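At this stage, I wrote out one protein, both as residues and as discrete backbone shape codes, and that material follows here.
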Amino acid sequence: MKALRKVLVVDDDPVVGKSFQRVLASKGYAVVTASDGAEALRKIAAEEYDAVFTDIRMPGMDGIDVAERIKGRQPWLPVVIVSGYATADNEARARAVGVSAVLHKPLSPEMIEESARDAMLEKDAGAVSAAHIAAEAAVPVAPSGSLSEPVPAIEPAEHPAIAYLAPILGLVYALVLPFAGLLTLLAVSFWYAGKALAKHAGGMRTWPRNVALCIAAPLVGLVYVLALPFVGLGLLAWTELRAVVKPAEAD
């Protein structure tokens, strides 16, 4: 069964409450009445309503004060001012408070029905807006950038082994070659020296050549030791350059 829409009519004249009851009961509304502002505020605090219709002139609190207090507690609740003594100043005060409409007595059934329908539309629109805001607040925000922006894929290098091993191999090559050159220097020096000494008994004719070989051998070995580190570094640079440039050319 469809729930009734509940309205509160605040007026010290019971005839007004009966008029609302007679018009709205057959339209699917439950009409509750209050004789003054204090009673109205108590009923609003105790249960929920879909709209409030209040007179301006009542004992104690006037209708605009009632509307202001209702809006302060439930700003989404439509409040309609109903009065036979509404002035321009009163209407301006009511509009400033945030009432939905100002109805002037005497009220016709059409005015009552139409104002109730408009109040329900206002309340439903406010509920939809509040739900939309809550749904937007529940959507998680992206840490950075637009959600529609594609994330670029990270492609592996074409030859990852070369890229990682080339510096190590080049460094080992540059460090080992000087020791290899030094060993070569000693081996060549001893070889030429031994050969020269072995041939020393052969006569003075071979002595100058043997002396020249003994002098040249250390010089050749020294050049070898000095040159090989630069050769190793050159090979290292060439290997790195090839590992970087070749994938770029493939792209």
User: Anything to note?
Assistant: The longest strand covers residues 5-10. The chain has two domains: 5-131, 160-250. The domain at 5-131 is CATH 3.40.50.2300 (Rossmann fold). Residues 144-148, 154-159 have pLDDT under 50 and may be disordered.
